[in-house]
């Protein structure tokens, strides 16, 4: 199951095994919204490049672009059964998203 929301400045895709919060696998998001970017930059813990390994900021074609992944309960539960590590899943997502948004490869 997949839910996608797109606007001119933001994109988000949530994946799940069924409906409901407990079935959520992961949510992937990208935004270039100036108000959101400014809020992230003012957030406690922002390092200049992101907040942690699954929340990063990049300069893509001269525009600040924020990438995020939020793991859901089903993903967390599946980590012991062979699911990819969070960093591997996030890297696969950002590799594709960076190409789409014209971002440099890290």
Short description:
The chain has 106 residues and is of the alpha+beta class. It has helices at residues 34-42, 73-78, 86-101; strands at residues 2-6, 10-16, 24-31, 50-52, 55-60, 63-71.
Describe this structure in words.
This protein is 29% helix and 36% strand. Strand 1 and strand 2 form a beta hairpin. The model has no long low-confidence stretch (mean pLDDT 84). It has 106 residues and is an alpha+beta fold. A six-stranded antiparallel β-sheet has the order 1-2-3-6-5-4, with helices on both faces.
Task: Describe the secondary structure blueprint for this structure.
Elements: E1 2-6, E2 10-16, E3 24-31, H1 34-42, E4 50-52, E5 55-60, E6 63-71, H2 73-78, H3 86-101
Antiparallel strand pairs: 1-2, 2-3, 3-6, 4-5, 5-6
């Amino acid at each position: 199951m997949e839910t996608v929301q797109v606007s001119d400045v933001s994109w988000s895709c949530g994946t799940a095994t069924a409906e409901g919060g407990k079935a959520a696998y992961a949510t992937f998001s990208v935004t270039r919204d100036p108000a959101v970017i400014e809020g992230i930059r003012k957030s406690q813990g922002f390092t200049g490049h992101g907040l942690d390994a699954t929340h990063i900021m990049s300069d893509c074609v001269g525009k600040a672009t924020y990438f995020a992944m939020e793991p859901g309960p089903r993903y967390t539960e599946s980590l012991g059964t062979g699911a990819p590590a969070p960093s591997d899943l996030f890297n696969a997502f950002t590799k594709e998203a960076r190409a789409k948004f014209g971002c440099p490869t890290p």
